[in-house]
Amino acid sequence: MCCTSRRGVGFKFDRYAAGDWHSPGDAGLVPAGREAKQHFMDNWGSMQGSNVKKLQLAAIGLSALTAMSMSGCGSTNAGPANTTIKVAYQQFGNYQPLEKLLNTAKSEVEKANPGTTVTLVPIKAAENDYYTKLSLMNKSASTAPDIAYEDTFLIKSDAAAGYLLPLDDYLSKWPEWNQFVTSAQDAGKGDDGKIYGVSMGTDTRALWYNKELFQKAGITVPWQPKTWQDIITAAQTIKDKVPGVMPLNVYSGKAAGEASSMQGFEMLNYGTPTPLFDSASQKWVLGSQGFKDSLAFIHKVYSEGLTPTPQQALDAQINSIVGGQWLPQSKLAIALDGSWLPSNWGPTGATPWPGWEKTMATAAMPTQNGQAPGSVSMSGGWTLSVGAKTKSPDLAVKFLETALNQKNSLSYDIDGAQIAVRKDVMSDPAYKSSSSAFGVLSDVVAVTKFRPANTDYPKVSNNIQVAMEAVMTGQQTVDQAAQAYDQAVSSAVGPAKTTGGK
Amino acid sequence: MGGTGVLPVGTVTSPSAGEPRFPSRKKRPRPARLVPLLPATVLLAVFLLGPVVWSFYGSFTNSALTGAAANHTSFVGLDNYSSLFTSSAFPMSLLLTLIFVFASAVIGQNLIGLALAVLMRKSNKVVRAAVGASVVAAWVLPEIVAAFGAYAFFSNTGTLNVILHAVGLPTINWLYDTPMLAVTLANVWRGTAFSMMVYSAALMNIPPEITEAATVDGAGGWKRMWNITLPMIRRSISTNLMLITLQTLSVFTLIWVMTAGGPGSKSSTLPVLAYQEAFQFSNLGYGTAIATILLVVGAIFSIIYLRVLKPEVD
């Protein structure tokens, strides 16, 4: 009983926390009103006719509450209908560029369409919680946003869930749509082939390393490892020569969430001959050597002390600790991390770090044994999507097209350290001199891979994190963890969608 | 015999003790008299019974936060339960939950609460006030604050390790190496005040004459405790055990903040597992099935307490 009521309250709480912008008065009053009624009911038994005063008081209280909640409703319904849209986005840490972009688009759209209002609805949450809160909002028509800041990796899931509006009809009439590179257009596709999101920019992943620490360890820079073993050798050298420094960070385990799966595991796995997902047959590959080798790499670096300790790595704040503390403070020599790191270090970033360009350098992540194409990268990125429950799709699309026009995309890609997806942005001189074009970050677009972001991906991704955590903490051997993964994935997606394994 | 409501009106001249005092009340209750009860019944049904029924229903569906199942939720029968009982995570989680309840509530909070209550009766005012205030302080803290406090105390560079280090004892990473011990101790710290207050109130209701009589008869401290005190506060023990068991079964914030169920799944009790399945892995139906099991576990505990301690028998 306790748990169920907790779940109920949780749902409500999330909705209120996310902001019931339709009727803020109601959001506050419903629980209070309910409590008052409960008191009223509690008192009823003891009244027995004599306690009329209490009854009257309770009745007055109730009617006052009703009146208040009714007036609350009335005031928020003011203004013409269908001209307000809500934009839901993630607000976490000090990441400003997104908010800046949305605010610019808001004022431009409101100016161009008099009488309309764009309401920004920040969801203050880390990545996993953001997905959860956004899904909960999407479940009900009264809370669903008109525009959502949507991770490409959830597009197929959320499209299948009926949360997103297909945009094909609108985009075919948008002259700027063909400025988007094909891979970016495809990133917004659902399982049914329709477009559900427009890419805001992408990202790549590579090895970041600290040149000063490398020089202290006597490793020549620029450094470009050719195999996984080269990375381990360099890390071992740093461990021996520069005590007190963590040689290597590879995200791992459930605490880092999707970062573990993508920056960590998949950067390894997609450099082996057997990838996670067989795109020809559209099946998940089980029991592969590449999977075990990737886990074995994780086990090796964590068990040999080349990484942060498992305790440090399982800190829920690990994502911001790496970019915000360890790298700027030169406590970490090599980080397998995303192209967006410099957005933390700019003058407006969370951890301004003037001169980071002189200390940090990038190297492409090599394939396992240096096999062709020699290096590997993973790409993701976010889109703007239109909610399927929107009452003003035209205005929502206008907002989307304004936010992602050339001018706004350019400044967002530069401010947010995004890898550009519009051709007219890529060729812009301002972009070319930005941090997005730093080192190999834009070069690895040539070898980059997108995740198999079909509807089952989130479940598989979670199981990858479970397997990683099991081997990094030594709770399971590589073989045990791989076997547990095979079983879990097989039952999560259904045996028909898997290939290989036992 | 009397008071069953079948006696004809006016046949009884001397009402027996169990019957209402007013003659008019001896009438068969009119249906209209039940009307005032209706709102309460409806509210209870909607807000207390409703979620339980909904939980049972939800656990038989494949309801999800995202993906095709979110769009077309369908009835899947016992699928959630069969995969629960064949998964490796669930039995472990159930065991952890039982250990957590037994160690932190039944043993920890209950016994320490009783001991504190007994000892405080024998102590002077100053000690009583000081102990009472410090124990209750942990209890009045909001759960999230208490959880952060416990996290700061047990974390690797936290207060406990600093103290251990200062007195020359070896330190361990409590949250990582002994997560269950850490969350159990934290829950004992947080919840003992409740048991202490319940037992303090119960002890005050024992007439001193009985204790004195026992002392005159030559009963020692332990004997008085066993033969007088415990039987007389039996009903409070039963109520207290039931309340703290149900409370501890549903502890989520404390564990989530301190260890998030980890490392691995070493402190994933049922509420943590249910949350992870429902809101992190998006399987609402599956998470609801876990919540339903939790409900059943709570019901079993309640029945055991009611049967064993027989609070209603005098």
Any overview of this molecule?
- The complex is a heterodimer of chains A (502) and B (314).
- Helix content of chain A is 48%, strand content 14%.
- Chain A contains 22 helices and 15 strands.
- In chain A, strands 2-1-3-13-4 form a five-stranded mixed beta sheet. Chain A has a four-stranded mixed beta sheet with strand order 6-9-5-10.
- In chain A, helix 2 (24-47) packs antiparallel against helix 3 and helix 4 runs antiparallel to helix 18.
- Chain A starts with a helix and ends with a strand.
- The relative contact order of chain A is 0.14.
- Chain B has a single domain (82-309), classed as MetI-like (MetI-like fold).
- Chain B has helices at residues 37-58, 68-71, 79-86, 89-122, 125-140, 143-154, 159-166, 174-177, 179-204, 208-216, 221-232, 234-249, 253-258, 270-280, 284-309.
- At the A-B interface, helix 1, helix 2, helix 5, helix 6 and helix 21 of A face helix 1, helix 2, helix 12, helix 14 and helix 15 of B.
- Chain B: Keywords: Cell membrane, Membrane, Transmembrane, Transmembrane helix, Transport.
Q: Helical amount among residues of chain A, as a percent range?
A: 40-55%
Binned strand content of chain B = under 5%
Rg of chain B is: 25 Å
| Fraction in beta strands of chain A | 5-15%
Tell me roughly what share of residues is in helical segments of chain B: 55-70%
**In CATH, what is the homologous superfamily of chain B?**
MetI-like
Number of helices of chain B: 15
Number of strand segments of chain B:
0
What is the 3D shape of chain B?
Answer: globular
Radius of gyration of chain A from CA coordinates? 26 Å
CATH evolutionary superfamily of the largest domain in chain A: Periplasmic binding protein-like II
How many strand units of chain A? 15
Domain ABC transmembrane type-1 (chain B): 95-305
Membrane topology (chain B): Multi-pass membrane protein
Biased composition (Low complexity) (chain B): 1-13
Family (chain B): Belongs to the binding-protein-dependent transport system permease family.
